[in-house]
Amino acid sequence: MTLEAALIVPMVICVFSLLIYFSYYLYGRCILSQDAYILAFRASVEKTAQWKDDPAGYVAHKAALVTGSKYFGSSSPVFAAEVSGKKIRVKGQAMAHHSAMGRYFLKPSGSWEYEAAGAAKRRDYAGHIRTATRLRDLGKEILNLGE
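RESULT FIELD:
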C-alpha cells in the first residue's frame, strides 16, 4: 500500500461515516420538528373535558405515543408545552449519540443536541364556518326581502 492510500483511505472512511452521522442528526431534527407541531396541533383541537383546559398535560401524556420508536441514533425526545392565550407552543429536545469515531480529526467534540418547536392556535374552525355560512344565508334573506 502506498503512502497516499494510507492517508486517503482513512480520510474517505471518516467522511463517509460523518455523512451517515449527519444524516441521522438531520433525520432526528426533522422528525422532532414534525412531532412538536403534531403535538401542538392535537392539543389545540382536543375537545375532551380532561384535556380541554390542560394542553400541557395533553402534550406530556401523548408525547410517547406520538414519538414511538422513530428516533434511532438519538435519545428519546423530551417535550415541554407553553400556553399563552390561544397559542400553544411545544418545544422538543433530543441528543444524537455518535461516539463511534472517538476523537478522530473531523468529528465535532461533545454531543449533538438539537431542538425544535411547533405552535398552533386554538380555534373553533367548525364554529367559524357555521357562523360565516349563517351570516351569508342571512345576507341572502335580507337581499331577497327587498324584491
